[in-house]
Specification:
The protein has six helices and six strands. It starts with a helix and ends in a 12-residue tail after the last helix. About 3% of the residues have low confidence. Helix content is 36%, strand content 29%. By secondary structure, the protein is of the alpha+beta class. The protein has one domain: Nuclear Transport Factor 2, Chain: A (Roll).
């Protein structure tokens, strides 16, 4: 990619919405390094020889829509907000039984490698909120997940009030100066 901020949408669309395996393969070969890695909550491809071929196979069933993206040119990292919709074929839950097709919002972190004047994707890492991921893979457990997250919040609130100790040191951490980060 010459300009990842403008090019990434078409790259992701060619990877995830085309019905042509040839277009997907051309896109993977053109925009990903040969040793690309892929991290997802349900699958992982480690970097190495032929890892790009494995990532291509994953993209052949991966369907998403892009919401927005941010490119940090200095760190060569891009963040893309994505909406993913799919049904895992082995689950007994039928998505047509729901009024709304199961979907999840995820943030994808892309590490880019600049080779000569072009940027290539060298690593993809997908992050889901717990409820969105549950909604995506097994919608009936969403109330249980929501309950567990709510319980976790209540536990944290109660623990702060009951755990003995000096909490001043926690507040002192707020005064730590961090390097200024710029966004491209």
């Amino acid at each position: 990619m010459e300009d990842p901020k403008t090019d990434i949408s078409s790259v992701i669309l060619n990877l995830t919405t085309t019905e042509s395996p040839d277009t997907q393969q051309e896109t993977v070969l053109k925009y990903m390094t040969a040793d690309v890695s892929f991290e997802h909550p349900v699958c992982s491809v480690r970097p190495g020889p032929n890892s790009r071929d494995k990532v291509l196979k994953i993209y052949q069933w991966y369907r998403v829509l892009i919401s927005q993206s941010v490119f940090d040119r200095e760190r060569q990292v891009m963040y893309v907000e994505i909406v993913q919709m799919f049904k895992l074929f082995f689950l007994p839950v039928e998505s047509s039984a729901c009024e709304v097709r199961p979907h999840a919002v995820l943030v994808t972190r892309l590490e880019l490698r600049k080779i000569k004047s072009l940027y290539y994707i060298s690593r993809q890492e997908d992050f889901y909120h717990t409820i969105d991921f549950a909604r995506l893979v097994l919608p009936p457990i969403v109330p249980l997940v929501w309950f567990l997250l709510t319980f976790g919040a209540i536990f944290s609130i109660v623990a702060t009030k009951t755990v003995p100790g000096d909490r001043e040191e926690l507040y002192e951490m707020d005064n730590i100066s961090l390097p200024v980060q710029t966004r491209a």
